[in-house]
């Protein structure tokens, strides 16, 4: 098991990529800290982790709220003594064309997807440093690399995450903390599955592999980057997109 003995925090863990990542990390031997904006939304993943006999803690955390993050981190350290891996997965969308986008929709996406990553990382990194190192993994997107119609706010956050990833890799390497990002393509999350069939078929057709990615595809990539197999990888953005941008 590649993550045996590790303590991993996954934000936005209630569903989709976050849920798949938490389950994958647990299967790889990690103790898992799951958090989401509503505690009740994690009932399903909590039940699955219990079935696996995994060691886990669950917290209600809004990544915009630094006090909630600090309370969670302090409690994890008091119980398990450390945090080895942080997966900054929590994110939202509020799509609209530039000229139609309300300012409040721009602000709330920036707050969660960009500042939320900053908040969590800034609070967790001192714990990692005190423990001799760690791994920070950030959720970017192919939208952050190439843009997307109607997603000014989302694209800005995912491009910003790449900038923070590369900056933190330079700053934190001396503390033995690796920082990487993953840029998923079209992934069959619960949100995507609710889209019209024609839209899903369009997304599938754009990828050379002719399918949507699964949350497990992204979770597998996170598990690799969190493991010692990736011990000389930092500051990179791994595209897991089925070749959609080729």
From TrEMBL:
The active site is at residue 154. The keyword Metal-binding does not apply. This is 3-oxoacyl-[acyl-carrier-protein] reductase. It comes from the Bacteria. It is an enzyme of class 1 (oxidoreductase). Keywords: Fatty acid biosynthesis, Fatty acid metabolism, Lipid biosynthesis, Lipid metabolism, NADP, Oxidoreductase. It catalyses: a (3R)-hydroxyacyl-[ACP] + NADP(+) = a 3-oxoacyl-[ACP] + NADPH + H(+). SUPFAM superfamilies: NAD(P)-binding Rossmann-fold domains. Pathway: Lipid metabolism; fatty acid biosynthesis. CDD domains: BKR_SDR_c. PROSITE patterns: ADH_SHORT (PS00061). One of its GO terms (molecular function) is NAD binding. Residues 6-185 form the Ketoreductase domain. The lineage of its organism: Bacteria, Bacillati, Bacillota, Clostridia, Eubacteriales. Catalyzes the NADPH-dependent reduction of beta-ketoacyl-ACP substrates to beta-hydroxyacyl-ACP products, the first reductive step in the elongation cycle of fatty acid biosynthesis.
């Amino acid at each position: 098991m590649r993550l045996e003995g590790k303590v991993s925090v996954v934000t936005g863990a209630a569903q989709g990529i976050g849920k798949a990542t938490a389950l994958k990390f647990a299967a790889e031997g990690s103790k898992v800290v799951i958090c989401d904006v509503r505690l009740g939304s994690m009932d399903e993943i909590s039940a699955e982790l219990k079935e696996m006999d995994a060691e886990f803690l669950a917290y209600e955390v809004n990544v915009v709220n630094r006090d909630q993050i600090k309370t969670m981190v302090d409690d994890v350290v008091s119980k398990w003594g450390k945090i080895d891996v942080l997966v900054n997965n929590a994110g939202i969308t509020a799509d609209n064309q530039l000229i139609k986008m309300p300012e409040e929709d721009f602000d709330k996406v920036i707050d969660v997807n960009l500042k939320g990553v900053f908040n969590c990382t800034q609070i967790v990194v001192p714990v990692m440093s005190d423990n001799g190192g760690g791994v920070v993994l950030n959720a970017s997107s192919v939208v952050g690399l190439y843009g997307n119609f109607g997603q000014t706010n989302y694209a800005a956050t995912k491009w910003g995450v790449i900038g923070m990833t590369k900056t933190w890799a330079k700053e934190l390497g001396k503390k033995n903390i690796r920082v990487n990002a993953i840029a998923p393509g079209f992934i069959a999350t619960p949100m995507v599955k609710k889209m019209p069939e024609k839209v899903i078929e369009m997304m599938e057709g754009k990828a050379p592999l002719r399918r949507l990615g699964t949350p497990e595809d992204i979770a597998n990539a996170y598990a690799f980057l969190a493991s010692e197999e990736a011990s000389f990888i930092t500051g990179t953005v791994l595209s897991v997109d089925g070749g959609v941008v080729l």
